[in-house]
Amino acid sequence: MGTLKHIGWRLVNILPVLLIVSVLTFLIGRLTPGDPIQGQYARTFSPEQIEGIRDAYGLNLPLWQQYVKWIGDLFVAGGGRSIVQEAPVFDILWPNFLNTLVLTAAGVLICAVVGIAIGTVAGAHHRRFADRFSMLFVQVGSNLSVYWFGLILIWIFALQLKWLPVSGMQSRGGGGFGDLLAHLILPGISAALISMLVLARFVRIGIVQEKQSDYYKTFASQGAGGLSLLGKHVGRNILPPVVNIIGLEIGTLITGVLFVESVFNWPGIGTQLLNAVNGKDYPLIQGGVVLIALCYLVVNLVTDVAVDALNPRLRRR
Amino acid sequence: MTLQVSDLVVEFGTGDDAVRVVDGISFSVAAGETFALVGESGSGKSITAASVLGLLPDSARVASGSIRLGGSELVGLSARELRRFRGSQVGMVFQNPLASLDPSFEVGNQLREIIGLHEPDLPRVSREALAVEWLGRVGIKDAPRVLGSYPHELSGGMRQRVMIAIASLSQPALLIADEPTTALDAVIQKQILDLLRNVIRTTGSSLFIITHDFGVVSYVADRVAVMRDGRLVEQGDREQVLAAPQDAYTRELIEAVPEIGTRFALERAGLPRRLGVRAPDWAVGSGSPVDSADRADQVGGAAPAVPVAGAASGVPRGEAASARPGEPLVVVERARKEFVVGGIGTGESRRSFLAVDDVSLEIRRGEVFGLIGESGSGKSTFARLAGGLLPLTSGTVTFDGQPLSALKGRGLRALRPRFQYVFQDATSSLNPRVSVGEQIVRPLVRFGKAPSVRAGRARAAEVLDLVQLPTGTFDRFPHELSGGQGQRIGIARALALEPDLLILDEPTSALDVSTQAAILNLLLDLREQLDLSYLFIGHNLAVIEFVCDRIGVLEAGRLVDVFDAHELFAPGRSPVTRALLGAILPIERSAVGAVDGELEGLTETTEPQPVAG
Predict the structure, then answer these.
(1) Which of B57, B100, B347 lies at the smallest CB-CB distance from A5?
(2) For residue B170, which residues of chain A lie inside 8 Å, CB to CB?
(3) Beta carbons within 10 angstroms of residue B157's beta carbon
(4) At A173, is the pLDDT very low, low, confident or very high (cuts 50, 70, 90)?
(5) Mean pLDDT lowest for which of A96-105, A160-169, B60-69?
(6) Cβ-nearest to A220 among B55, B84, B118
């Protein structure tokens, strides 16, 4: 009961955050120079005609009225109509947003699995060769840029070795699930790189610290072996911080994915948003940002609830 | 011999940078014997214990020497081979019971796992039964509840009982206990020591106990070794080491321990009340006064024995009497402090608990008022209330006639320099990035006590001299100081403002015995030189009795007893006071031997549950 109540409270707390996000998104769009109608039709129509179109899109209304109208559109009109593409915003964004989610999910999976693996090897061999070697790898990797790393991956694995496809999400004519997986590997790794290495550091230091803790000594003093100690006790005790870091890193990952999409020509929301910004397509920018913000909030909520659930001190009241 | 350690050398680091922390020590522990290794922090005693189990930190290694357990050489064994000995032949109890169980698993799960390490073929049901049986043996009555609890749901004493069960359930030949009671309250300490004695009696194990406390040595040990800077300076039978120590360092350590009644013995001998000074008339006495008085008390309130009887029956009180009932400096009336957790917005229901419950007392000018209580009794909260660091829920605090609890802003600020705090952990109460000298100067300038920074520096040099630190200390940073030096800086900082009252919150609890003695002596010196009053918070009755003129006893936020130091043994003391008194472990200097026979504390009945979950 306590947990449900707690989750309920967290959901309520999301509302003011969403309100602030919506206001900021709205204002940032409007306060930067440029105008969608001018940009698109300045050569085609006379100034009077353009004013007419602006009226039709409600762009001449006072700012607060535009904001209220947009909030209403979010709920009933699919986020308003895109000025450039002339269709409801969410209809345009949705398929690509799903593609972005697929790539993000692949990134998170790679980040978690590889990050924890590197961290565990390093932590378990603290100050020995395996530790120093993997930390060198982490050190170098953390300084790579996502763009450059993605291009190098393409060059090695797609162009030279020809093991994996160069870009896109599906081979021409579609190729089923295996084909999708093959297309996911390279962009997934590029997107996950930085977060994966951050996670590896945390896992490593977590293991080193837990190994110095008193309970570790208790079990070691009773003859418990290295692996069962590491797997059961250390693993369980570093789980909450690991979940926390993964939750935080998903945020970073989503941002990274938007860049990776352009390198790998992935049909995600990133390319669309880029075009929308260039064309000053307010409703589309706003709709996209709100979608991404919502993702952040949901991930945060899930992370917090999971971390609380893992803490025995919070389990019973 | 159960354990034979010969010429053991342990080093941190390798090659030319190697630091020897254990430097060629030899000792042995016979079957069924209790052997105590005594030393101050940094002496290498815990490293010695860890090397027996092969559980040294990564950077340390046994450089040479031999450790033989029941005839088998342990030095040079691989980790895998060592693992066979751990648990089955050596069990270990660690200092901090709060951290020595895995916080993420229920106690039952951990006990079953450890039983499984020793008897892999035992089915789950039998493991459970064995766990219940052992919890019974360590005095835990409601085993099912404890097995289903997470460690944080148990008190420190309970957790230490569980640890003892874990360490002994395989009935090892040797039980190592590294400061097993240092983190516990006095009353619980005695129960745990009794339990250890009882457990080794039933399992037939030898006990190798590491401690810094000669009271513990006196209570449990058969033989003693004293360690300093990695070497053994002395070893021998308990009676011999305690009654006639051969080495000067041993003597110094024993004499640094405050004992009940010492101050009155010193007074009668016309000696100053300082630790390390020994009154001739009782050095040869049979047992310390607390013990005889304590026993007399238990027998049925018979008149306490000599040293105390003098004070209680109206013989002139000397120094204690000179703490004339001066005018009250601090008057606390009906102070209450309620803490609230949870409430709207947190998703938790609102709960509250009373940390200080209707406490009234006064601290007179020139006196040392001691406040004692177990952990969680509210003594530190009271210290904060008395100095206006925390707002009262209700009640009043008056300082030198001014209503402290009603003052705000400028008025409170004007009063602040007149009462200053000294905290338990001196180093962490200092800013790590500012030199200690500057930290003395800043409040001086801020409170307008020094017209310029230059004048402030001059004053800082004065107070550094007052606390017996060299002038060069001014430019040091907190991490460069030892515990004792840090505490001296804490005192210097407080004194610089020329306060009337020092609020000392466990100022010596984290210090070694000899450092504690030096700090207590310093505080007694300063009080005479500067005409100060102290509010001295502590949990060690022997320290409080030695330093304080009047003593208040707190229990669960309530003041249950207030009395003059010389009336400690008078009839009518509260049960809490008597329990604190009974928990003191006196240093037995006679050959009579420690309290033998009936052991107390085999059940957890008197043990409080932790406050709030």
Answers:
(1) B347
(2) 222
(3) 25
(4) low
(5) A160-169
(6) B55
Least confident among A6-20, B9-23, B206-220, B286-300 = B286-300
Burial zone of A43 (CB within 10 Å; 0-12 exposed, 13-18 middle, 19+ buried): exposed
- Give the Å distances, CA to CA, from B194 to B38, B165, B190: 19, 14, 6
Structure token pair of residue B402: 């001014």
Cβ contact (<8 Å) for A221 and B91? yes
Q: Which residue of A has its CA nearest to B166?
A: A222
- Listed in sequence order, the DSSP H helices in A265-281 are 269-278
Predicted structure pTM score: 0.81
pLDDT higher at A1 or A308: A308
What tens digit of pLDDT does each residue of B330-364 get? 999 999 999 887 666 555 667 788 899 999 999 99
> Burial of B510 by CB count in 10 Å (0-12 exposed, 13-18 middle, 19+ buried)?
middle
* Structure ipTM: 0.80
- Helices (DSSP H) in A125-234: which residue ranges? 129-142, 146-153, 176-211, 214-221, 226-228
Q: Which residues of A touch B150 (CB under 8 A)?
A: 312-313
- What is the third-level CATH fold of A95-316? MetI-like fold (1.10.3720)
Three-class SS state of B139 = coil
Q: How far is B178 from chain A (nearest CA, A)?
A: 12
Distance from CA of B344 to the nearest CA of A (A): 10
Do the bridges between strand B223-228 and strand B34-38 make them parallel or antiparallel, or are there none, so unpaired?
Answer: parallel
* A128, A222, A228, A301, best to mutate vs chain B, most B CBs in 10 Å: A222
Inter-chain CB proximity B150 and A127 less than 8 Å: no
CA separation for the pair B209, B196 (Å, rounded): 10
Q: What residues in B contact A215, CB-CB < 8 Å?
A: 99-103
pLDDT in tens, B236-280: 999 999 999 999 999 999 988 888 888 888 888 888 888 877 655
